[in-house]
């Protein structure tokens, strides 16, 4: 009987765990990115003392996709497939991320924005639409503030403009923890310095402690047509902060993606791509 009850208990536990897995909402998942299509052009651009990995897909009006902190360009695979049908799509690894190198220079959003502007110069692209996720969205806002002549439109998802816009609960969120763990594994596979992930995280963390820090008055000077975007279950950015950003940027459109979180481009790739495309191509 003892053996029977042990087996029965095992079956019950398995059924319960399966039920929990089935019940898991889309916004609680962290899907693997799709396979990145073959690039029309790729390589390393020498910008600001680093070697910045980039890839270009398709033809048409340009769209620059900028990933979030600790991530890399390949998270955009699904968006690249959709957007490159009608646009020239540029992706890159931010300094120190993925395949790009870094220096000992302190991280700052102004510096990272200047990296992307230098990449556009390298690619001879004067003006582009920009889709940015998390840190990528913040970089997009930085460019809109200081170099609006380089942007046609800005689709900023899961961004913040002050550090108090970050939800402290993100530190114990399991989906975000899974992202950090996956990013570490990807770093070891991609980076030219695969054993320096901890040092890289420590270096960029200094930026996150104090940046960004833009005032309402500064945001009010943005002239680039902007969409402020968030998943309705974002783990990292407070909803009230997202709404504040949309109200502070003149004419900004607020887009809330249903049943999605900070990682909406992976959880709802088709919906995300269509939302970005609709905004970019809006007349």
- Main pleated-sheet profile: 8 strands, mixed
Distance between the termini: 73 Å
Q: For this structure, what is the CATH class?
A: Alpha Beta
Provide the gyration radius in Å: 20 Å
Shape: globular
Helix-strand pattern, N to C? Answer: HEEEHEHEHEHHHEHEHH
Q: Looking at CATH, which topology would you report?
A: Rossmann fold
Give the uncertain stretches in residue-range form. Answer: 1-22
What is the domain total for the residues?
1
The percent range for strand residues is 15-25%
CATH architecture label name: 3-Layer(aba) Sandwich
- Number of beta-strand segments: 8
The side-by-side strand order for the widest beta sheet comes to 1-2-4-3-5-6-7-8
Protein name: Alpha/beta fold hydrolase
Pfam families: Abhydrolase_6 (PF12697)
GO molecular function: serine hydrolase activity
Keywords: Hydrolase, Signal
